[in-house]
User: Fold this.
Amino acid sequence: MPRSAQIERLPELDSALARIAAEVVAEFGSAGLTPEGLSISVIDLAPRSGGALAAGSYRGNVAYYPASVVKAFYLVYYESEKEAGRLKDTPEIVRAVHDMITVSSNDATGFVVDAITDTTSGPEITSARKWEKWKKRRNAMNRFFLARGYGDFNANQKTFCEDAYGREQIFRDGGRNRNRFTPDDVARLFKEIARGEIVGAAGTQEMLGLLARDITSEKPYDDLELEDARLAGKKLPAGTRIWSKSGDAYDYHHLVARAVLPNGSDFVIAAFTKGVRTVPGVIPRIYEKVGSLLVAAPAVR
Assistant:
């Protein structure tokens, strides 16, 4: 796989994203959006002279509860375990991974987390030795990503439709051990997926196939995953292709996507919000404004 491209932060892009954030907050402030409830991270996938990739963010280093966006990290770890020979596909694992990413099934995600960490849900584990062994296995994904330089990061919890019970509830540690990461981190992850930097060619193509979203169809929305991608993608130029993962839980609503525009522009946008989950226009407006910026102002790229 290719060497991971360095990311170069551009102050001018940071400033432009701060202006966009202020405009979006001004538009949706009456609906509950605040400057502290919004983060944007952008990476341009076209290398600059020297090979680095331009990047910028507005509060991109702030960690959030990621909701279902965490499933993109589970997907990467699944592919890495297969590539290393530590995990073999079965029809049910393949089906669960597909449903985890394409329709964001929490039941499928729980099955995948069990398979890739060799853990299971169930009653409390009373043996201290067995409990430590279980926790070490469940933290395998954290060790993988922390070793790659991911920062304020935790991805060791299943996602649930209602609540966790037994050992899963105990493992949450009263909320102190919940999933968390920054928009900068997930933008980086999508950069590494898009460029084939984190697993080999076969795994990369499999991930891109699962993350691809059809934003051209006018069919009624049948799930939130596709709705988020379409609403945001349709704010970009016609003919844009999208690979994405959304998250929607409690008062959080996020969307990270790689977008390839008809003019060849290729970039990642991660938009994280808190407090406006039921306001569908916020994230599409962010994508519209960021897309216009990157097309019209190449100086900030």
